[in-house]
Amino acid sequence: MNFAGKVVLITGASSGIGARTAQKLSQLGASLSLTGRKLENLEKVASECKGNDQPFLIPGDITNENDTKRILEETIKKFGKLDVLVNNAGIIETGTIENTSLEQYDRIMNTNMRSIYHLTMLAVPHLIKTQGNVVNVSSVNGIRSFPGVLAYNLSKTAVDQFTRCVALELAPKNVRINSVNPGVTVTNLHKRGGMDEATYAKFLEHSKTTHPLGRAGTTDELANAIIFLASDQATFITGASLPVDGGRHATCLR
Q1: Is the pTM of this model over 0.70?
Q2: Percent of the chain, pLDDT > 90?
Q3: Which one from 105, 117, 152, 200 is the annotated catalytic residue?
Q4: Rounded CA separation 152/148 (Å)
Q5: Are strands 84-87 and 56-59 parallel, antiparallel or unpaired?
Q6: Are 217 and 20 in contact (CB under 8 A)?
């Protein structure tokens, strides 16, 4: 897979799946535009990218419409084009219909879905010019139902439907859009969502029984899937939701 000459914009690039995807794409020759909320975290990721060119860093909050516009505009101003958009940024919070709130719903949907809708909408004219593609980072929660994270489940189901609908709309213009659907993956997502160290350790241990392959996934495995879908190896794939979840999407409640 060769991304030389390709411009890739990655959201949520300051940690986890986004950071690892950036590092691997850098090694494959991509020109990277990386965005996240904290500049210092982006700088750390950039220092770990071993490509010929240093990534272009744009700190910002994708739930802020002006920031989202600025992120896309600065990317185009810097590189003159866009070949791949990786919509990776996302959050998770616990909550059931009995104890959730509209504030939680809005917070999760704004980050996990509305921001993807907005940034993709802005990026499409540039992707049409390059006949590029989009990879959305969804979740196994978009495919299957799980209790206790209601708003998160809804947001990821929406991402999968968005992926399919936009894939059909843009196929005549040879622009592809796909999603990856991780199972439990070792990142800081759940800790940021409120889990302490002890609870997270138990959660990872429990994942050995909920994932048929007997473990949680790694950021390396998710990055590999994202890069494949974004590459010229996947030119006949669009509208797909690719589970990268150790088989969890195929299981019953346990």
Answers
A1: yes
A2: 80
A3: 152
A4: 9
A5: unpaired
A6: no
Structure tokens at 102: 């509209």
Over the range 7-44, which residues count as b (16 or more CB within 10 Å of their CB) and which as e?
bbbbbbbbbbbbbbbbbbbbebebbbbbbbeeeebbee
Count how many Cα atoms sit within 13 Å of the Cα of residue 133 in the half-sphere of its side chain.
24
Assess contact for 37 and 55: CB atoms under 8 A: no
Q: Is residue 37 within 8 Å of residue 62, measured between CB atoms?
A: no
Q: Which two tokens stand for residue 104?
A: 């939680």
* Contact residues for 72 (Cβ-Cβ < 8 A; gap 6+): 9, 82, 119, 122, 123, 126
In this prediction, residues 101-119 reach a mean pLDDT of 98
117 labelled catalytic: no
Q: Which two tokens stand for residue 130?
A: 């390059």
